[in-house]
Amino acid sequence: MKQFFEHCSRNLGIRGLPAINVRPYKQGLGWGVEAARDLKAGELILSIPKKAWRPTSAAEAWETIDSEEKELSQRLINFAKNKNMNLMEKPVLVGSTVLSLHVLRELKNKSSKSKDYLSVIPKELGSLPLFWNNDQMARLQNSPVRRKVEEQRNLLLDIYSEVVEPHFKEDPNFGAANFAWSYSLLLSRAVSSFKDQIPFGLVPVLDFFNHCTPSSYAGYCMFEFNHEDESYHVVSTVDVAKGQQLFISYGKLCNGDLLRKYGFCVPHNPYNTVSVDGIVGTGIPAKF
Predict the structure, then answer these.
(1) How many beta carbons lie within 10 A of that of residue 249, not counting itself?
(2) What is the four-CA torsion angle of 213, 123, 53, 149, rounded to 10 degrees?
(3) Neighbours of 8 (CB within 10 A)
């Protein structure tokens, strides 16, 4: 990780790295970020410029694939057009697919601008329900999460069988397992927001921060996308002592969405919701 930080500072222009450490944590937290020194409330901890995040963005992936493999980009567009989903979901499908393929290609590209970053990303499939076995899925029997996970699996299978496999054929680098891994990588690590116009992509260093709700941990930080210089900024919201873990929020998500997207739940989550199918009044099915 020390070499990766040196690369980020020297070659990617990420500022503020001496203020943090990245290390593995127990209790299912995986890798996380801690303060390498005392931090003050309101302090700018990290600044991640465009040249650091652009190589692993959906925009970069689309430009590369559309210019070099027109057949693939057209196949993907046709797939999205024919898919029964709302108009807002179709760009997400295209962006997720091209970025997944872009990640797999860059991992094998020795001259890739992203190779140092991608080399430190965990390669195991992780704890996402997308990869759970039947016994594990049975624990979600009465949860709406199960239906969403099954829809996610079916979509992934459709993308692979109708877009990826016909194009790459026997190339083992783009096999089903590798594609599933790269797609799940985006589910758990990518950032984006249509509302705030945050680009969709993987952001080096930012993706090592674990999640918390704003009021639940003393090390809570905020991140934002600065549209003027197109950089990501991470700011501490409270004073933080050296050695304390730092967190950001992945959004106001209920435990069902946290489990499906990131593979964990939060105790006493203030954003929890419960979906209940029932009969009201005249016998019309309703959800509460």
Answers:
(1) 17
(2) -50
(3) 20
Residues 6+ apart with CB under 8 A from 207: 121, 189, 190, 191
CB burial of 191-226 (b: ≥16 within 10 Å; e: otherwise) equals bbeeeeebbbbbbbbbbbbbbbbeeebebbbebebe
- Which residues have CB under 8 Å from 182's CB, separation 6+? 100, 101, 103, 104
Report pLDDT for 288: 44
**Diameter over CA atoms, the chain:** 67
Mean pLDDT across the stretch 124-138? Answer: 84
Q: Phi/psi at 216 (nearest 5 deg)?
A: -95, -20
User: Could you give the CA distance from residue 278 to residue 50 in angstroms, rounded to a whole number?
Assistant: 49
Mapped onto helix, strand or coil, the DSSP state of residue 274 is coil
Q: Helical H runs in 123-205?
A: 134-138, 144-159, 165-168, 176-189
Distance CA 227, CA 224 (A): 9
- 30 falls in which pLDDT band (50, 70, 90)? confident
Q: Which of 64, 88, 66 is nearest to 75 (CA)?
A: 66
